[in-house]
């Protein structure tokens, strides 16, 4: 698969933590609406790859292109702005703000972008309904179950209608039933809005929800469809 | 091993111990309770010592809080012994007016006071003239100085040796023969001297004594002093306790993980609490030692501090042994109690899950009861006039003030919850802060309670002192409108007064000097002691008398009746020149008949005025024999030019050369100003230090909170949250409770200060700049905490928090 027409592409990514190389010349690309699973054993560099692709960290070498932008050349403020508008995130433990209600958590990315509170909460409520957690809109994260919390996190990731969703072990803390439910909702909603999904996981059953799988091992990437890149 | 299995030895569980017959061997009895406490406390102490960087930081913070608390308590408990030592030395060196004057002997001495003032500072002076070769000596002196010589305190010697003391050297023109030892001084900064007169000292200028030292009993501390002491202790100790409560929570997350690991291997909940208490005990024992060292080191500063005119030696600042023992036991116990209290509602589970009790709704009724009861105790006292200094009133006053201050601390959490519960809307940073406080305002409110009590106490005390100082300032300003000094001393004859007037008029800066010899006399009829019987006579030259009254003509030998106060003194009436002021007064009468040639004169200033004497008779020196009066005094009024530098000091020097025992009455210097200013400065410094302490506690709790939320912060960073958004959120989260606390402190402090001033029948005066300054410093704490919290906040907004592997 070539990066032609890709929404997000990376070339020659290298990143080390001290003397330990986490990424060693990685190449990656993803197209709109595509779900790509990034697999690999623990400590292989999957999360590091995700963070570099999302512009959260800067690689030591290589480039990341997002549309017309070269992410690796942007300032921290520009990358933050891009993450507010174009990217969504789902993490293993949800990481909802404990003092905000579910509705306020989902509305938060819109508010960070400057949307007024009422409009942000209106849109948030739509996503809560879609993800079947509208009944707990006024509860705080400490008052809901793990599955509900993760669906709220998915709603939060999708509320800004991002073009790329980065999901790092989104079902890692859930039982299989809740995990399946979350993955279904995430991938369906993403495909509906033609958002690409980078899905980091070490579980094959999770990877089964993707269109394509890549494996990260010892800092290198192998596309299961295209062989070693 | 299942975490649910009870530990071996606890009974009721499984055991692999089996006897020969296959039966289980009886389990050993459970350890005694005290053994469990000791063992678990010891384990906690070992964990604190080996708990890594965070453990040591928590231990150091706990020790710092305890050290401060111990130092404050030791200082407070030193006040009674300090005052006893101070008063003891004061009385041991004094004997002005020995009850029964002994006859002159080899071991007696004539003794008189020659106190003076130099640039507003009092200098204690004593003049002696021994009758024999073995006179008594006061403490701190091995032998009396020779004639024309003096022994001085080290501070006075330093002043005399300095350029600033040049004028004083002219006044105290004795040769310095040595210094007075510490036993003879009230404090290291006291200015005092002991000189021997070159001329005989006679009565009534001096007293004959055969020993130094007066019997005395320590008077109980007056109510205002007790209240000030209690309020100061409460205002200082509350922030220290709050800081302690914050410091024991430092590194809580790691400690709870450690305790969870202990739970996993079988420790029960009470055991984990005892272990946590042991960690606090380690820190508090270190703090006890540090507090003692801080106290011992800090008390060395006592020699340079003068508070309320009292300056003491470092060795005077010594708490009693009972107080030390109590503090040594109570403070570590309080630290352990605070730890246990902090863990209420927290249960560390073996899997590391910490379950908290659901947030308890704060009740208003008991929080309001404290300040209301305090006010109920104080308001009736404010209405009573005049204030009666009784033990019951003292207790009411102290209890009322304390309840009011503590009530403020109790009200704040409810107020914060009530206010933030009604807030909504606003930008993201505000929303995050408000929601955070709505969910759990506990730690921030606890820290701010300390600010509230400290500021309320400081404002109340400051208001009280400002009002009292203003009262004195007004009185002195009224009296000191004219540039005038009054002097009085014993009088022997008119030429003495004339010589004094000549010397005073020649003094630099003097524009006018007037003087008379004044004496009291009485009618021969009527009951002894009745004030209607007494009259006052002024003896002076015609020039001097004309300054007091209008008269047609005057020459030496004339006598005038003024008719002041409606006296029925008439020419030819008989008066007693040595009036008896009570029925038991042993003075023998000296009768004198008012000459029939006495004429009328009208006083120039007949109305009542401060310091003005109503003379009933005016006499020229030849009209009456001054020696027949009982206690004639020379009275001088000296006007001076304020623009002449040190005019007042020149006058005082002249007066000292005329008669070193002469006394001054003037409003030139207000001695209360320095007293009150010293206390107010100390208060301000104490409030600043306290607020910084609370600020440090707030920073610790804020950084702790950020640390606990580091993963969330990384997530928010991943979402592109601006750093400024979270920075503002930290500011709002700190500002809201601090602003509410300061508002409460301001109201309570001013109310309490007003009540106290009303009680003392003093006009309420608020020093707005200082009050604004204290509340401003509280506001500065907000910025200080926020600014120091930003670097750790930004450090935690990093992707490392997102890593799950």
What do these coordinates show?
The complex is a heterodimer of chains A (229) and B (805). Chain A is an alpha/beta fold. Chain A contains seven helices and eleven strands. In chain A, the strands form two sheets. In chain A, strands 6-7-8-3-9-10-11 form a seven-stranded mixed β-sheet, with helices on both faces. A four-stranded antiparallel β-sheet of chain A has the order 2-1-4-5, with helices on one face. In chain A, helix 3 crosses helix 4 (117-130), helix 3 (102-112) packs parallel to helix 5 (146-158) and helix 5 (146-158) runs parallel beside helix 6 (176-192). Chain B is an alpha+beta fold and 805 residues long. At the A-B interface, helix 2 and helix 3 of A face helix 11 and helix 17 of B.
Arithmetic mean of pLDDT of chain A: 88
Low-confidence segments of chain A, given as residue ranges, are none
Intertermini distance of chain B: 27 Å
Number of strands of chain B: 21
Residue share in β-strands of chain A: 25-35%
User: Which strands sit side by side, in order, in the main sheet of chain A?
Assistant: 6-7-8-3-9-10-11
Radius of gyration of chain B: 37 Å
- Percent of residues in helices of chain B comes to 40-55%
Total number of helical segments of chain B?
19
Chain pair sharing the greatest interface: A-B, 34 and 26 residues
From the structure above, extract its key features.
heterodimer; A: 229 residues; alpha/beta; seven-stranded mixed beta sheet; four-stranded antiparallel beta sheet; B: 805 residues; alpha+beta; ten-stranded mixed beta sheet; 19 helices; 50% helix
């Amino acid at each position: 698969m070539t990066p032609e027409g890709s929404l997000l592409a990376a070339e020659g990514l290298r990143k080390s933590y001290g003397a330990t190389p986490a990424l060693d010349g990685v190449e990656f690309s993803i197209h709109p609406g595509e779900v790509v699973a990034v697999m690999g054993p623990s400590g292989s560099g999957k999360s590091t790859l995700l963070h570099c692709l999302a512009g959260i960290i800067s690689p030591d070498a290589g480039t990341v292109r997002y549309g017309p932008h070269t992410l690796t050349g942007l300032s921290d403020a520009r990358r933050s702005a891009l993450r507010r508008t174009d990217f969504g995130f789902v993490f293993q433990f949800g990481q909802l703000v404990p003092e905000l209600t579910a509705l306020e958590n989902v509305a938060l990315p819109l508010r960070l972008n400057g949307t007024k509170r009422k409009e942000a909460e209106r849109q948030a409520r739509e996503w809560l309904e879609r993800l079947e957690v509208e009944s707990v809109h006024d509860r705080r994260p400490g008052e809901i179950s793990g599955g509900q919390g993760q669906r709220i996190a998915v709603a939060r990731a999708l509320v800004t209608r991002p073009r790329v969703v980065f999901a790092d072990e989104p079902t890692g803390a859930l039982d299989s039933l809740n995990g399946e439910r979350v993955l279904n909702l995430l991938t369906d909603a993403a495909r509906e809005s033609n958002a690409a999904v980078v899905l980091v996981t070490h579980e094959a059953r999770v990877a089964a929800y993707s269109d394509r799988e890549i494996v990260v091992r010892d800092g290198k990437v192998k596309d299961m469809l295209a062989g070693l890149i | 091993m299942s975490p649910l299995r009870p530990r071996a030895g606890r009974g009721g569980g499984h055991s692999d111990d089996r006897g020969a017959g296959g039966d289980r061997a009886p389990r050993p009895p459970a350890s005694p309770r005290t053994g469990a406490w000791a063992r678990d406390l010891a384990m906690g102490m070992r964990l604190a010592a080996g708990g890594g960087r965070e453990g040591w930081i928590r231990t150091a913070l706990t020790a710092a809080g305890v050290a401060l608390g111990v130092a404050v308590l030791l200082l407070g408990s030193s006040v009674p012994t300090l005052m006893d030592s101070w008063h003891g030395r004061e009385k041991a060196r004094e004997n002005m007016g020995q009850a029964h004057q002994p006859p002159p002997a080899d071991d007696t001495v004539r003794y008189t006071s020659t106190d003076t003032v130099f640039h507003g500072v009092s200098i204690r002076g004593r003049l002696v003239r021994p009758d024999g070769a073995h006179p008594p000596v006061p403490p701190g002196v091995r032998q009396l100085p020779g004639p024309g010589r003096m022994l001085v305190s080290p501070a006075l010697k330093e002043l005399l040796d300095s350029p600033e003391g040049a004028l004083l050297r002219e006044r105290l023109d004795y040769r310095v023969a040595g210094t007075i030892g510490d036993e003879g001084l009230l404090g290291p900064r006291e200015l005092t001297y002991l000189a021997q007169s070159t001329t005989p000292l006679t009565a009534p200028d001096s007293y004959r004594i055969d020993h130094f030292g007066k019997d005395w009993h320590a008077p109980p501390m007056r109510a205002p002093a007790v209240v000030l002491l209690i309020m100061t202790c409460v205002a200082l100790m509350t922030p220290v306790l709050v800081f302690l409560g914050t410091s024991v929570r430092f590194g809580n997350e790691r400690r709870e993980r450690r305790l969870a690991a202990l739970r996993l291997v079988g420790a029960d909940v009470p055991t984990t609490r005892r272990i946590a208490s042991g960690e606090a005990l380690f820190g508090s024992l270190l703090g006890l030692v540090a507090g003692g060292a801080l106290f011992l080191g800090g008390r060395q500063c006592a020699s340079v501090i003068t508070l309320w005119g009292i300056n003491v030696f470092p060795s005077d600042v010594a708490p009693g042994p009972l107080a030390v023992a109590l503090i040594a036991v109570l403070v570590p116990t309080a630290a352990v109690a605070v730890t246990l209290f902090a863990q209420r509602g927290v249960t560390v589970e073996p899997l590391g899950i910490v379950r908290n009790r659901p947030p308890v709704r704060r009740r208003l009724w008991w929080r309001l009861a404290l300040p209301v009861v305090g006010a109920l105790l104080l308001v009736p006292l404010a209405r009573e006039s005049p204030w009666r200094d009784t033990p019951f009133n003292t207790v009411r006053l102290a209890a009322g003030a304390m309840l009011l201050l503590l009530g403020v601390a109790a009200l704040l959490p409810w107020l914060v919850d009530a206010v933030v519960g009604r807030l909504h809307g606003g930008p993201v940073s505000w929303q995050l802060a408000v929601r955070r406080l709505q969910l759990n305002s506990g730690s921030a409110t606890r820290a701010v309670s300390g600010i509230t009590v400290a500021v309320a106490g400081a404002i109340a005390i400051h208001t009280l002192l400002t009002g009292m100082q203003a009262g004195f300032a007004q009185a002195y300003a009224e009296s000191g409108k004219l540039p005038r000094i009054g002097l009085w001393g014993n009088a022997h004859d008119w030429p003495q007064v004339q010589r004094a007037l000549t010397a005073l008029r020649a003094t630099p800066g003097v524009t006018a000097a007037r003087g008379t010899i004044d004496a009291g006399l009485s009618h021969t009829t009527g009951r002894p002691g009745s004030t209607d019987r007494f009259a006052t006579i002024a003896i002076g030259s015609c020039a001097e008398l004309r300054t007091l009254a209008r008269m047609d003509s005057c020459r030496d030998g004339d006598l005038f009746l003024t008719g002041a106060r409606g006296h029925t003194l008439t020419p030819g009436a008989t008066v007693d020149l040595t009036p008896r002021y009570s029925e038991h007064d042993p003075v023998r009468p000296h009768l004198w008949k008012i000459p029939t040639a006495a004429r009328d004169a009208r006083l120039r200033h007949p109305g009542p005025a401060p310091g003005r004497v109503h003379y009933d008779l005016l006499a020229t020196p030849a009209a009456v024999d001054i020696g027949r009066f009982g206690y004639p005094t020379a009275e001088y009024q000296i006007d001076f030019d304020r623009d002449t530098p040190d005019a007042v000091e020149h006058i005082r020097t002249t007066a000292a050369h005329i008669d070193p025992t002469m006394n001054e009455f003037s409003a030139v210097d207000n001695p209360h100003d320095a007293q009150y200013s010293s206390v107010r400065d100390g208060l301000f410094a104490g409030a600043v230090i306290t607020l910084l302490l609370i600020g440090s506690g707030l920073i610790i709790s804020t950084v702790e909170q950020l640390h606990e939320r580091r993963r969330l912060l990384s997530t928010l960073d991943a979402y592109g949250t601006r750093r400024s958004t979270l920075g503002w959120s930290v500011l709002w989260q700190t500002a809201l409770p601090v602003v509410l606390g300061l508002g409460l402190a301001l109201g309570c402090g001013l109310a309490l200060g007003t009540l106290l001033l009303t009680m003392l029948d003093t006009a309420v005066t608020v020093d707005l700049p200082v009050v604004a300054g204290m509340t401003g410093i509280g506001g500065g704490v907000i910025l200080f905490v926020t600014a120091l919290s930003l670097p750790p906040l930004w450090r935690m907004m990093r992707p490392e928090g997102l890593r799950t592997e």
